[in-house]
Amino acid sequence: MSFRLRAAVERTGYAILASMSARGHEVVQRAQDERRRRRTPTEDFEPYIVEVLETRGGEGPAEEVMDAIGERMVETFRAGDTEVGPTGEVRWRTACRTARKQLADQGRLVAPTPGVWRLI
């Protein structure tokens, strides 16, 4: 069994994959795709972050901003969004933080102080 397949088996917990070296990659890919479909894509959070910050004058405490985003998106969340991740945080909040980082990488948002998000 290849290292990649073994790692996928350990990561996903699909013991049946261990005996499928020829088709293993396809099975792993399908399992990963299924998990992705269970959660809202990170980029879907970006317009909500911008919208909430605009309504707050362009800046706000991260926790309050995420609470407002959660209220706006609650009807669109997928089943996996409300699960608790390995960090102990609900997955949609982790995705929201990742989306904030992507906006910062694009030069559209900064965190002037810890816990505060601001539009540029």
Summary tags:
single chain; 120 residues; mainly alpha; Arc Repressor Mutant, subunit A; 3-stranded antiparallel β-sheet; elongated
CATH class bucket of the largest domain: Mainly Alpha
Q: What percent of the residues sit in helical stretches (DSSP H or I)?
A: 40-55%
* Count of runs of 4 or more consecutive helical residues: 5
What would you call the shape? elongated
Strand order of the largest sheet: 1-3-2
Instruction: Sketch the major β-sheet.
Output: 3 strands, antiparallel
Distance between the termini: 50 Å
What integer is the average pLDDT?
Answer: 85
Give me the CATH architecture of the largest domain, please.
Answer: Orthogonal Bundle
Overall structural class, as computed from helix and strand content, comes to: mainly alpha
Uncertain regions: pLDDT < 50 for 5+ in a row?
none
Topology order in helix (H) and strand (E) letters: HHHEHHEE
Number of domains: 2
Share of residues in strands: 5-15%
Tally of DSSP β-strands: 3
Query: Could you please say which CATH topology of the largest domain applies here?
Result: Arc Repressor Mutant, subunit A
- Radius of gyration from the alpha-carbon trace, in angstroms: 18 Å
Task: Describe the protein in words.
By secondary structure, this protein is mainly α. The protein has 2 domains: 35 residues, no CATH class; 78 residues, Arc Repressor Mutant, subunit A. The chain is built from 5 helices and 3 strands; from the N terminus they run αααβααββ. A 3-stranded antiparallel β-sheet has the order 1-3-2. Helix 1 packs parallel to helix 2. The longest helix is centred in the C-terminal third of the chain and has 15 residues.
